[in-house]
Write a structure and sequence with these properties.
By secondary structure, this protein is mostly helical. The protein is 69% helix and 0% strand. α3 packs parallel to α9.
Length: 244
């Protein structure tokens, strides 16, 4: 990727570390979590620099090593008691702001498409309207969690819509990548993610964006149940007091 301008590579690195920063803040400055994130980024950087992921004709695809571990970690968080405890301690305000990284990601995809490292369909000029998530994230952060002018239903809806936009680009990216499963973009496949630092997109940024939506939805729904429970208890107490 020697012909890529330095600003594209710099933007990829800066976007990744901005994602780390937001996640670090959401986890109340957990140094252990920060070390885990940095170790994972370092491992993937080292693997990709060897050219390991550029071998695309083998089964199972080597690229699965970038996405499978994060998704296993996400599943562990939701399906274990200690994991759920961790999820409930995360600050959804920072997790909502984390989605602003989708703006520079979309610019990266556009630049990479111009230099023929990803297909045009993966950009906002093609089949990928995910830039809307990045544009709206600051407003959700401010009006939803700072001013608290947005109700819970709308916050859940925003997360669900943005989650659908994320799934759309992920599916297109996978099916456009050179592998036995490739379905389209054969003339200009998605090869950028096979190289450093763009491997950090599928192995870190995308899983964290997905994780942030899932955690936010979980906490918003939990708040709804807590409100109902509190209301029911208050009503029961009122009835009891009135009857005595």
């Amino acid at each position: 990727m020697e012909n890529l301008p330095l600003y594209i590579i710099t933007c990829a690195g800066a976007t990744t570390f901005l994602t780390v920063f937001f996640f670090y803040k959401a986890a109340a400055g957990s140094k252990i979590l920060l070390l885990i994130c940095m170790a994972w980024l370092g491992i993937q950087a080292a693997i990709s620099l060897t050219g390991f992921y550029t071998v695309t004709h083998v089964m199972p695809p080597r690229f699965i090593l970038t996405i499978l571990p994060p998704f296993i970690a996400i599943a562990a968080c939701f399906f274990t008691k200690s994991g759920r405890s961790f999820l409930d301690r995360l600050n959804v305000k920072w997790l909502s702001l984390l989605h602003v990284v989708r703006l520079p990601v979309e610019m990266l995809l556009l630049w990479l498409a111009i230099h023929t490292y990803v297909p045009q369909l993966m950009t906002f000029e093609g089949r990928n309207p995910d830039i809307l998530s990045g544009i709206t994230a600051p407003f959700i952060f401010y009006f939803g969690y700072v001013r608290k002018n947005i109700n819970r239903k709308l916050l859940i809806t925003w997360n669900l819509v943005c989650l659908a936009l994320l799934c759309n680009i992920v599916i297109n990216a996978i099916l456009a990548a050179p592998s036995p499963f490739q379905q389209f973009a054969f003339d200009q496949p998605n090869i950028a993610v096979l190289y450093f630092p763009f491997v950090w997109l599928p192995c870190f940024i995308v899983p964290l964006v997905l994780f942030s939506h899932l955690v936010s939805i979980r906490q918003l729904i939990s708040q709804k149940h807590m409100t109902r429970t509190s209301s029911d208890r208050s009503g029961a107490a009122t009835v009891y007091a009135a009857s005595h």
